[in-house]
TrEMBL record:
This is Probable peptidoglycan glycosyltransferase FtsW. The lineage of its organism: Bacteria, Pseudomonadati, Pseudomonadota, Gammaproteobacteria, Vibrionales. One of its GO terms (cellular component) is plasma membrane. The gene is ftsW. One of its GO terms (biological process) is cell wall organization. GO terms for molecular function: lipid-linked peptidoglycan transporter activity; peptidoglycan glycosyltransferase activity.
Length: 411
């Protein structure tokens, strides 16, 4: 008994004084993603009760579906984190072709909501091919930048090739129509090409052409023009084209500093359309106030910063595919958040983009969860590379992700 007590005391002493073994995955990234998902579940539950009651008679219908999507997303993350980056790079082109096929299918048999055919009904949930296309494009682009790294930096041909692929996706997206997803893809592509070292004049030409094209798309499409004019002055037509934005602004105004309290939103009571999807951030602002809004934005900023930091470490260590892909994900998360939040507070026209890991929707949540899983894998492989070197890190079993202490013993 005495020896056992001594062994126990020595174990506690070592635990208090000895630094922990290095962790081979980013625990902070895991907690950030989980925090955003749980926040999304709480806010979607609160925002969806009135519309769920009206449409189905079941107050928590959308909340239960979102909880199911959330559990599936955790399973997706657990599965994706086991897939080596070499597999994503190997299948990047087939994934891109699959996305193009899905974008064609949705034009033929897609489900139309509010005049836009963007969803393929699959029974349990509606698949949005635009979300799959985003992920596929960024994985393809990361692989392309690795294969044609010198050409992208040296010639205009290497710069224009991925833009041709983006043009094909843009045509199919605008046929739905879905200008918002195209803008996100365009901005992320620009960011990834910039990280790869493309020349400044090429960016100026591309951005000028894109702005001109987007301007023409807005001018010659009446509903887009109405969105822009209502964004500039929503109070000119508060019961027509400016209705969504004025209701959203009233939600933020009622929220003030501390909010009205969870579940106490007035705007979600059939005043604010799409309260649990596109404008969930407005409900969050009304119920949790400036403090809640700030906390959520800081969490998303932390997710973006983590992705960018992981990408920088990979690029510094020569792991170009993981580095470009992580940076691409950071641009994606950041800009999509900017558009969603900007639309809710009247900074940009309404685009119908979800708030990452928070808004209701199976497709968006599944794809964002896949991106988080890939980020965890990128970070894991970078840590293995830094710890063991390139040759040994490729031979290590994936179980090292779950138990870093085993790796310390192997070392």
């Amino acid at each position: 008994m005495l020896s056992q007590a001594k062994n126990g005391a020595s174990t506690v002493g070592e635990w208090l004084t000895k630094p922990p073994a290095p962790c081979l995955y980013d625990r902070q990234l895991v907690w950030i993603a989980l925090s955003l998902m749980i926040t999304g579940l709480v806010i979607v539950t609160s925002a969806s009760v009135p519309v769920a009651t009206r449409l189905t008679g079941i107050p928590f219908y959308f909340a239960l579906r979102h909880a199911f999507f959330l559990v599936c997303s955790l399973v997706i993350i657990a599965g994706v984190v086991q897939v080596p980056l070499s597999r994503w790079k190997q299948f990047s082109v087939p994934m891109l072709f699959l996305s193009i096929v899905l974008l064609i299918i949705v034009l033929l048999i897609g489900r139309s909501v509010n005049g836009a055919a963007r969803w393929i009904p699959l029974g349990v949930f509606n698949l949005q091919p635009a979300e799959v296309a985003k992920l596929s494009l960024f994985i393809f682009l990361a692989g392309y930048l690795v294969r044609q790294y010198s050409q992208v930096r040296a010639s205009f041909i290497g710069f224009i090739k991925p833009l041709a692929v983006l043009g094909i996706l843009a045509f199919l997206l605008l046929m739905q129509p879905d200008l918002g997803s195209f803008v996100v893809m365009f901005v992320t592509t620009v960011g990834m090409l910039f990280i790869a070292g493309a020349k400044l004049w090429q960016f100026l030409v591309m951005i000028s052409g894109a702005l001109l094209g987007i301007g023409l798309l807005i001018v010659f499409e009446p509903y887009r023009l109405r969105r822009v004019t209502s964004f500039l002055d929503p109070w000119e037509d508060p019961f027509g084209s400016g209705y969504q934005l004025t209701q959203s602004l009233m939600a933020f105004g009622r929220g003030e500093l501390m909010g009205q309290g969870l579940g106490n939103s007035i705007q979600k009571l059939e005043y604010l359309p799409e309260a649990h999807t596109d404008f969930v951030f407005a409900v969050l602002g009304e119920e949790l106030g400036l403090i809640g809004v700030t906390v959520v934005l800081l969490l998303i900023f932390a997710l973006v910063f983590k992705a960018l930091f992981i990408g920088r470490k990979c690029l510094q260590s020569g792991q170009l595919f993981g580095g470009f892909l992580a940076c691409g994900f950071s641009f994606w998360f950041a800009f999509q958040t900017l558009v969603n939040v900007g639309a809710a507070i009247g900074m940009v026209p309404t685009k119908g983009l979800t708030l990452p890991l928070i808004s209701y929707g199976g497709s968006s949540l599944f794809i964002m969860a896949t991106a988080v899983g890939i980020l965890l894998r990128i970070d894991h492989e970078q840590r293995l590379f830094a710890k063991y070197g390139p040759a040994e890190s490729e031979e290590l079993d994936d179980s090292s992700l779950n138990d870093s202490n085993n790796n310390d013993e192997q070392e």
